[in-house]
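Lecture 7 notes: from sequence to structure.
We start with the chain below.
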Amino acid sequence: MSGAQDEPWYWRTLRWGQTNLTEIDPARYDAAWWRDYWRRTSVQGVIVNAGGIVAYYPSEHPLHRRAEFLGDRDLYGEIVKAAREEGLSVLARMDSNRADETFYLEHPDWFAVDADGQPFKAGNLYLACVNGPYYREYLPAVLAEIVRRSSPDGITDNSWSGLGRDHICYCVSCRRGFRESTGQDLPRRRDWDDPAYRQWIEWSYAQRLGIWDLNNAVTSRVGGEDCLWIGMNAGDPLAQSLHFRDYKAICERASIIMLDSQFRRGAGFSANGDSGKLVHGLLGWDALIPESTAMYDAGIPTFRLGSKPEAETRMWAVEGFAGGLQPWWHHIGSHHEDRRQYHTARPLFRWHEANCTYLQDRDPIATVGVVWSQRSLDFHGRDEPQERSVDPYRGVVDALIRARIPYLPVHADHIERDADQFEVLVLPNVGALSDRQCAQIRSFVYDGGGLVATGESSLYDEWGDRRPDFALADLLGVHATGSHHGSFAPSTPDWQAYDGHTYLRIERSEKLPEEIVAGFTETDLLPFGGRLEVVRADEDATVAMTWVPPFPIYPPEKAWMARTHSGLPGLVTRVRSNGSRIAYLGADLDRRYARHHHPDHGRVLANAVRWAACGWVALEVDGPGVLDCHLYRQGDSVILHLVNLNQGGAWQGALDELVPAGPFAVRVRMPGERVANRARLLVAERDAQVRDEDGWSSVVVPRVVDHEVIVLSA
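Predicted structure tokens for the same chain:
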């Protein structure tokens, strides 16, 4: 991306700003102040409220209610004109899935209803149905009006996908459409084993893709081929699933993704870097993914008019930079008494402007691929997607981050496409895999790749129906028995209960790979406390760890093992004749690590990955603290992001102070066996000495506050 003005806006607009107008803003919007703010924050594009729930221009549609203080003014048009004078790209913002009672009473059949015919509401607003005339006729006419009036570069929509998965709409349009598509009536309740419910899930996904295609057809017809309708999308697959947004299918249609992911929801800052890598894996690394970075306090609880602490905002943003996201500041309302929020964006955006050459047009370097599947999240996760899918994935990723092992998320459909860049694939309880996906994994291993699988990976088909055995049993060297110990649920805090008081025993033998138990020379026993899938191991497999059954935790006098060995495998390793290394964990250390971050669990996971990768990891970083390491190739150079996650450990809540870490000794294997002769620290704004150490390029980073970016040039 050269940034040339003759390129489409979605290739060259790197930094965005959004003043999310409220209904009172027509009476108080200070155009001169905001134009100056655009300049001070170096934005190249702005997102301007146009319509939806309320209009910020005099719409010709009588039910398109004007903002309360708008009058006959065209505030949207005024802001667009100012933005064009500043040379900025413009996206018209919609928030369009709800309407007031006046609209509802005029067209009640356009809105979502429950099985009793009662409308779904959010506060005093009524939720429109994505399958009815509201979305299929009314909104396209509004989009066409906006494009004709103001010629925006594109249109984005905050809540375009309508009613979520937790409700079934029984309006006339849904009943008729589902019957015409499937020949069946709508399911009466949530039942993942009901063929009608399964078809409703797939049909609902298809309807959202239909909305995407319809709206793009409208905007491109009226505004030209580069006038895109691009909705907004979440940063994690679970949120996408709960709103019927098929991330893979959307990215196959999209040229840019506007990412609405404003704060950490029970995860660390590293979740933002992971989101960037995951979406780039679908969209391509040459595309842009601007992310809405809330300047307001968008946490739990949310304070729309309060300022988010600068340290919290910075850490979320720099993790986004590391994962390939572009910045987009976001304020709610045009006037604020808490003016602290105005000071956060400028240094971030100015740094991005100064260093954007190194933040675009680059390819990731990682030898570890972590497999994910939105379909498995749906049909294996079912009513427990967090426990079955999200936590295992997050636990593996967190363990790799803690071990400073660069990784990339890889969609289960893209394994064959992406296989050449990986030495090992990790399946974190990816239960639902199709025969074709399993064949891709099998081919990867046959070609010499390593494999680490956990839990119920491949035990279910693409519909979530249980197979008699693991589809990948021939690779894993284990077979399902249909039983388990423990549960997906978090460990109980009740001292009197001891069902979760279990351990893993290291089974030391000459067959035990030493790399698997590195760091555990002084113990034969590791705390566990989780769920164990009971499996039978093949004769050519090595049982590295076994499960120790539960025994009392209280009173202390009873805390001794009545049964010291069970023989049930917790970790099994296997080396194929072609040299491929395979590890299977029936013990859910991935899920446990996501919840509790017990160091032993993270170490076992990282050890298994390093062993399966035969040591092929292109990065080593020594030094105290928790770093998230993102490695890229750009021409003959290597770019390394170090994000300091060693922040805010004193208590939970918003981060309000950055704690420096370091020094760090960094060693990188340059592509093509080259050796770097120059190292530049972009945040510290200075050169660093680089040395050749047995083919590794070595550099010392004295200090990392929130992040550092190292450019190693050959």
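Points to note: Residues 9-359 form a domain with the TIM Barrel fold (CATH 3.20.20.80). The CA atoms of residues 628 and 643 lie 5 Å apart.
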